[in-house]
């Protein structure tokens, strides 16, 4: 299938005569982020079988490398100079061979790459290098993580309510879920309606918990994709999806780039999670945005699921009934009143009473702290010290950061925990970002969802800011007032959903370069530029662009990722 060592570097007419088409190819090697595609001639013996999306072998400098074809176009017609010679010489090397006749990228993926590159200000070639999986050099079994099955249950009395909700589910694009077991029920329900399902989860822990249950039903027709897989395991799972052998696909945020089946159903679990945003590599993207395009391009149905859709623009969620009759009661404990008083403790009297009651009933109590260390703040370490001084056996109390609740590690304690105590939510409120209140509300609703999954009847929220609208919305049900206040605030100051944001962070040390780019950006009509300011965590010099209209900013496509971070729809602006 290859063309040997053909390497035309002579007469341009001879090249045009032999090669009728050229392929736009990006080499699948480490390249600068601004590197896009390169032109390669298609030899005559490959013309009949060549297609966009195929893996090919190409000459690259002094070696052969893998590349992927993004497009096939006619070669440019050389212009004749005044002396009759070629003007503006065009040179390209020929493709050596097609590695696989079956394209590794589907037509939908190729369109997605183009749309992604336009929206996130990056070269299509860079996106393709992100999407195409690495081909293993040799087959290796790898080491698969062995995760114990998580216990998801539906009470018989709730099945009738879930089945009654089916009519509304058929039309919904947003589903408000109360526990995880009802979501698993939803998966099985949709499995009867669609030939293929795709579940996107924000974390690997959640993905594995789902997989431990769903593999019993789907077996070999289940494909799981995440960054923790070996190169060989990832490639085999990708190929299973590409060849339509997977009826259920489980993936983290990178699943939006997979060769998704046509007319499938895509369920995004815990849609409000910040983990759906890629924020530490180039290009930065939000899977919640990209999945919309993927669904449109594959004619698939997309359903977002979350414990709340407050502040989601135009969201009209259907509420999915919970899997059990246990409803977690919320108690707001006001620590502001006792702060500074003699005998003040970071663990309130109601919390101590809940711990004592659990001990008497041989139940567990879980205490969540956002900090693990800190002698003078609310932290796991400090809570243990306080409880020890109160005569409590801390070995009988689960005191941990929130990961233990969010990862599913407490599933073995289902029905055996009497109270969840949130020691303090204030560290989240203190984050210098316009979305801090929204994040607090969402996180609390998520913890409530997990409490109801674990059949925890009571959740105690200790707060030094009991009058905060997000806290009142959660604990007292004042959600409408909270949403109105947040939207008024964002409209007045110019934040989403009323404007689009792009954050530029400069990693270099050349002040003149930073000023040059800033000056060029100011020439664009329709952009409001805030800054420069120093980012809270990275300490980088940054600019925040506010876009009120859909405008093109060509400059952003050319900024090298080695010097600049371009973040559209940033999770944090400070």
Automatic annotation (TrEMBL):
Write down the Gene3D superfamilies for this protein, in alphabetical order.
Answer: P-loop containing nucleotide triphosphate hydrolases, PriA, 3(prime) DNA-binding domain
- The protein, known as: Primosomal protein N' 3' DNA-binding domain-containing protein
Keyword ATP-binding: yes or no?
Answer: yes
GO BP:
DNA recombination; DNA replication initiation; double-strand break repair
Could you tell me the keywords of this UniProt record? ATP-binding, DNA-binding, Nucleotide-binding
A single Gene Ontology MF term assigned here is: DNA binding
Supply the InterPro entries for this chain.
P-loop_NTPase, PriA_3primeBD, PriA_3primeBD_sf
What positions does the domain Primosomal protein N' 3' DNA-binding occupy?
A: 30-133
The superkingdom listed in its UniProt entry is Bacteria
| High-level lineage | Bacteria, Candidatus Komeiliibacteriota
